[in-house]
Write a structure and sequence with these properties.
Layout (H helix, E strand, L loop, with lengths): L1 E2 L2 E9 L11 H10 E8 L6 H6 L5 H15 L3 E4 L15 E2 L2 E3 L3 E4 L5 E4 L6 H5 L2 H5 L2 H20 L7 H7 L1 H21 L4 E4 L6 E3 L5 E4 L8 E5 L5 E5 L11 H13 L6 H7 L1
Parallel strand pairs: 2-3, 3-4, 4-6, 8-9, 9-11
Antiparallel strand pairs: 1-2, 2-12, 5-6, 7-8, 10-11, 12-13
Helix pairs in contact: 1-3, 7-8
This protein binds manganese (II) ion.
Manganese (II) ion binds next to loops.
């Protein structure tokens, strides 16, 4: 699997990068992407922080480089699926479409190497259910759909009146003694959603807290984030999942660089280099 420091996986799952926000650890993610590759890469929401960008334009070179790196991986043949979150909800108008080889979907079923089905979803849909009305999750489809709709309306109103998205993870952090409870409630709610979708597991993000466990009878996997914890989820060829933490720059330089150069040359020869501007236009 390791070849000159480049690890290849069956699938990689990345969420909550928050490109465009000052807290985004773009250099570390870039370094991570240089050393990790996969047949399928899932972008599990909040990759671009559209809300932050709307108020102040913050887009340093490293943020551009992350976008370029992802587009290049897609060009080189990685299957790439983008499941938008609440911070990149501008992409939610593009469900079912592709840009730069990346498929955009509201949710996705990932078929594991072992044949197990995993629901891939960002997770913000359930904020209100988690904090206020978890009992709704146990009711019929109608009440449940209603709770999710109320959650969306609630956050749309907040935004219209100039408040940010009501962030579960931020709120839980302010109430440190309750944080563990809320993380647990979030996990339980997402597990219920996995069951509703007849899935064997759920792979999500949103609360910036990486995890892999089976505490509620269904596999719960959270990608974590690239603001504080710098984590991603990798699926091994045998279907095992692993949390990879990448909080320090690798000392090995860039094993992927030569391949990139070749790909870039080949691409330039065809006269169709996708610039960062293309992506900004596309999103
Ligand atoms: Mn989110």
């Amino acid at each position: 699997m390791t070849e000159g420091g480049l690890r290849h996986f069956r699938a990689l799952f990345i969420s909550d990068v928050h490109l465009g926000a000052r807290g985004c650890q773009a250099e570390l993610l870039l370094d991570f992407l240089r050393h990790h590759d996969a047949d399928t890469i899932y972008l599990v929401g909040d990759i671009v922080d559209g809300w932050r960008l709307r108020s102040t334009w913050y887009w340093p070179q490293a943020h551009n480089d992350v976008v370029q790196k992802l587009l290049r991986k897609a060009r080189k043949g990685a299957r790439m699926i983008y499941v938008p979150g609440n911070h990149d909800e501008f992409l939610r108008e593009y469900y079912g479409t592709h840009f730069g080889g990346i498929k955009v979907a509201e949710r996705y079923i990932h078929l594991g190497a072992d044949g197990r089905r995993y629901l891939v979803i960002h997770g913000d849909h359930f904020d209100l259910v988690v904090t206020q009305a978890r009992w709704l999750a146990h009711l019929g489809d109608y009440a449940y759909t209603l709770a999710i709709a109320i959650n969306r309306v609630f956050n749309n109103l907040r935004r219209r009146f100039g408040f940010g998205y009501w962030s579960l993870s931020q709120w839980a952090k302010h109430k440190v003694k309750n944080a563990v409870n809320y993380i647990g409630e979030f996990e339980r709610t997402l597990v219920i959603e996995a069951r509703r979708n007849a899935a064997d597991g759920v792979i999500c993000g949103h609360i910036h807290h990486a995890a892999i466990h089976n505490n509620f009878g269904v596999t719960y996997i959270n990608c974590g984030d690239w603001v504080e914890s710098c984590t991603a989820i990798a699926e091994h060829p045998d279907g095992r999942f692993e949390i990879i933490t990448w909080t320090t720059m690798s000392p090995h330089g860039d094993p992927d660089r030569e391949v990139e150069r070749e790909a870039e040359t080949a691409h330039t020869a065809r006269g169709a280099v996708a610039g960062a501007g293309d992506l900004v236009d596309a999103v």
